[in-house]
Amino acid sequence: MSKQLTIIKSENVDIxxxxxxxxxxxxxxxxxxxxxxxxALLRQITEQGMTDELDQQxxxxxxxxxKTVKKxxxxxxxxxxxxxxxxxxxxxxxxxxxxxxxxxxxxxxQQQRNTYAAAKRAEEERRRAEAxxxxxxxxxxxxxxxxxxxxxxxxxxxxxxDVINKIKAIYNATTLDNYSESYDKLKNxxxxxxxxDVRPVVPFNAMLGKGECTHIxxxxxxxxxxxxxxxxxxxxxxxxxxxLDRMPSRRQQLEAMAKANAEEAERIRxxxxxxxxxxxxxxxxxxxxxxxxxxxxAEMRRAAAEVGNLFDQQxxxxxxxxxxxxxxxxxxxxLNPEGFAEVISMWWSNEGRxxxxxxxxxxxxxxxxxxxxxxxxxxNPQLIKSEHICYEDVVKAK
Length: 398
Fold this sequence. Notes:
This protein has ten helices and no strands. The protein is mainly α. The chain is elongated.
């Protein structure tokens, strides 16, 4: 406070109060007289047209106007300088605490807060990135486990199909001569299925690594391969029993064919083939239904896993940590002169081309002045040759 007391002294205030009206009135009088004489001269030129004599009078008036302006400036200068000094002191006091001004305590504190906010944001981004990475790893494990289960089921279905084809082959190869042998083969056919030798057919997940993928495969094989094998074995036993039950009927058909003439034997053979085709179609339909049910179950498991992942992501996002209020804005740092061409290009594409000539003239004033300087160079004038630009001669009397 002591600083401005040395400036805003009573004598200075007295000077302002006493001299300002007098100086102002003098300058008002000078302005009115100058304008009165100048307007009269301007009316004369407008009415009569410019002549050599009037041109000389106008030149003399302009020179006197310059001198009058100088005198007016000299009269008011001490007062306006005092005003400026007082204003500067008030402004200085404001600037001393303005957070927008570099060097103030508020500005330094703001910089500290900015640094802290940036560090907290970076820390939060790292936390979220790590949480996301862990979620992705967990999702990858879950997905790989489901893929392994489906791979084992596919292998089991392929094994079952192979075994069933062998049973069909025994049945279809049955004749009157090898009936007893075929019957014994079916009766003693081993329905046990082992999936222990099934090798990984699921590509390794790069996020998990070969070692963890191999471990997951082994764990899935130990946990579900046995149950799947039992299910397949039950299907095979049922299939084998069905064909065993059909063996007596097949012998009767074969005996009837042996006793019948060629035409009748062909009819019986066609009937046997048609019944076998119908039976295979029925079994194919049942197999398709089973596979559809397995796919639906697998989709349900995947959907349940995805829902769980969504809850995990939501929980991660809602972890409460203190975050100072802040705003994040992009700031351009041009790395080399060529970068300004790209900045200008973006500005022109998004805003510049929509502005009027008047607005663009204000924005590009410095560039226009530079180009005009090149055009007015006495030794080596340079002009832009374009249908969008023209140069005009501006004549100014001296």
